[in-house]
Amino acid sequence: MKLRKKTTNVFIFFSILAFVLLMIIIPYIERNPIYVFDGQKYQSINMNGIISAFMSLICILIVCMSYKTGLIISLILMTLFNLQMTLAVIRYQSYSALPGIANALIYMIALIIMSRQLQRRQTDAVTDILTGLLNRRGLIQYLERATKEKKPFTLLYVDIDDFKYINDNLGHKYGDQVLVELSRRMTTIIGEKAIASRLGGDEFVLILPAKEDVEGLTQNLLFKLNEKITLKADETENNLYLTASVGSVKYPDDCRDTQSLLKYADIALYQAKNLGKNKCVSFDKAMEQEIFRHAEVESIIKESLLKDYFYLVYQPQYEAGTKRLRGFETLIRLTMPDGTSVAPGEFISVAEKTDLIILIDEYVVNRALREFSEYMKSFNRRYTLSINVSAKNICRRGFADMVIKAVDKTQFPAECLEMEITEYCLVNSLDIAVENINKLKEIGIQIALDDFGTGYASLSYLSKLSVDLLKIDKSFIDDIGVGRKAEEFISAVITIGHLHGCKVISEGVEQENQLSLLQQKGCDFIQGFIWNKPLPYEEALNLAQNNL
Ligand code: C2E
Ligand code: MG
Ligand code: MG
């Protein structure tokens, strides 16, 4: 960029020099014409026409190199040239220069038109046609300049939440209308001192001078974008409410170059989406590491599915009073060939953010059923094999069919199978979840509500879903002995569970006092380190065979 500017300046300087030189030469040539013998007599040739054509060419080149300054320079040069010719007309009373003056004037008009056109083309190249804001190219150019000037600013990366819904359901015409309206709101909020641009789709970047009250502006922005949007077409009106997520990054505190500014703001935006959308998150360094680790774990999961590095462990569940084995909860584990392990808490949450969890759940269902199907029928007693279902899966059409297919294929006794669902997944897609649950129950599979009490609608689901087992979350068990509240809550859950015809299990039981309280309150089953940690397959099998 710097080099280009320097070259332009050098070029313009030498062009001016050449122009002035030609201006000096012209009167000399006028006085000393070239004579050419045509066979009969000498003819004088006037070279002024050629020289003035060269001078015009120089002006054209100067304008091409710099549309604004170049035009001013060219107009000054042409005016000087015209002045010189006018003086010559007055001085020598010779009117032969008059066509040259007219020619130069026409050239000056042509130069102005040319400069305007070039400027318009340049503006179009950096403008978003739909909204009239800067486009990606314009933004990058602006950022390059701003970072060179070293004036602090805040960059906001704005993404409209679930905008895809509008395009998919209402069509692109409405989508465009919405984008125009939102961009209008953004420019009104940020005012003239800030820059607004549209990167494409529903992504916008705003640049606010550091002096502005960035926090207040951002809050105002989120508020304004959330206001009602009215879409009109064919006399019908549609009202729409949208939200936006924002990632913010500070120059020069967070980073100093254009690419990193956009990348970091995007990372912050990603966090804002993860935290539930409709919010602004400021970038900090730890986020970058988190994103890096996320990508790393994602590729580990893909490789492990392909090369079969996953395996299952089984944590025993016991009857609370008699310590008779009830069955096992299936828990997935991942160890790489070099011995490094990734904790399920980490890879499950990464997988849940991508569609990899669908493959993982399918893998667990198939493997657990395969490992136990043969033995389930040979055990003297009936045990329950419990399998965790991720939120994404239970709310996905086709999940129940996948499980039923695996049951058929392995001939696993369906009544010995239990699917553990977490309540928070039910909030958004209760209908599909109910459909899946009903299909599973139809063939005799039991349903457990995992991590019970951590969601905010626990009790309301009990009446809507036919649940067989409630799993009291470990966090409540941890609080036993700390205060009376947890104990009262546990007691209430057990009572309510029983009232709804459910059995109740407590997970994460580690201490004697926890166990005795749970026994005393009538909890049906116990799962926890107090009696067993998750066991490798062979050990779990042995336990089941010997626990008669
Ligand atoms: P969860 O379903 O609530 O599983 C119980 C977790 O508590 C397991 O952790 C288990 O090892 C742990 N735990 C059990 N008893 C005790 C105890 O007494 N003390 C302590 N400190 N911990 C105990 P894990 O295996 O790390 O699994 C964590 C979570 O990952 C699970 O929570 C579940 O949500 C998810 N997960 C594990 N395996 C699978 C799977 O195969 N599929 C899916 N979708 N999720 C899974
Ligand atoms: Mg579980
Ligand atoms: Mg749990």
Walk me through this protein's architecture:
55% of the residues lie in helices and 19% in strands. By secondary structure, it is of the alpha/beta class. It has three domains: 2-125, no CATH class; 136-283, Reverse transcriptase/Diguanylate cyclase domain (Alpha-Beta Plaits), CATH 3.30.70; 294-543, EAL domain (TIM Barrel, Alpha-Beta Barrel), CATH 3.20.20.450. Strands 10-11-13-14-15-16-17-18 form an eight-stranded mixed β-barrel, surrounded by four helices. A five-stranded mixed β-sheet has the order 4-5-3-8-9, with helices on both faces. Strands 1-2 form a two-stranded antiparallel sheet. Helix 2 packs antiparallel against helix 3 (69-92), helix 3 packs antiparallel against helix 4 and helix 11 crosses helix 12 (356-378). The radius of gyration is 39 Å and the shape is elongated. The N and C termini lie far apart (81 Å). The mean pLDDT is 90. The site of one magnesium ion has 5 residues, from strand 15.
Briefly say what this structure is:
The chain is built from 20 helices and 19 strands. It has 548 residues and is an alpha/beta fold.
Features:
55% helix; 20 helices; binds ligand C2E; TIM Barrel; single chain; 3 domains; alpha/beta; Alpha-Beta Plaits; elongated; 548 residues
